[in-house]
Design brief:
The protein contains 4 helices and no strands. It is mainly α. The longest helix is centred in the middle third of the chain and has 24 residues. The N and C termini lie far apart (39 Å).
């Protein structure tokens, strides 16, 4: 299948037993207790990101952002905060 050659065998493109196995692993991550634990981290990161954008705005209300670097930085910050 061409999709799996390009995108891999993640949850979206796996089938049968492999799909069930991956889904079971992810279900625990999105349980209510875990979501309650990580929600404050996501909220704090979102507020920090908003402040960062506001502080860097030019006089014309625009800002050039390296989207890939920004996403990586925020992602790793959230993961490290949640995994502690």
């Amino acid at each position: 299948m061409i999709n799996t050659n390009i995108l891999g065998m993640g949850l979206l493109f796996s089938e049968g037993a492999e799909h069930k196995r991956q889904k079971r692993i992810l279900m625990g991550l999105f349980s209510v207790p875990n979501l309650k634990k990580i929600f404050p981290v996501f909220r704090e990161e979102a507020e920090g990101f908003t402040r960062w954008l506001d502080e860097g705005m030019g006089e014309d209300g625009r800002r050039v952002v390296d989207g890939e670097l920004m996403i990586q930085t925020r992602y790793f910050s959230m993961v490290s905060a949640v995994s502690c």
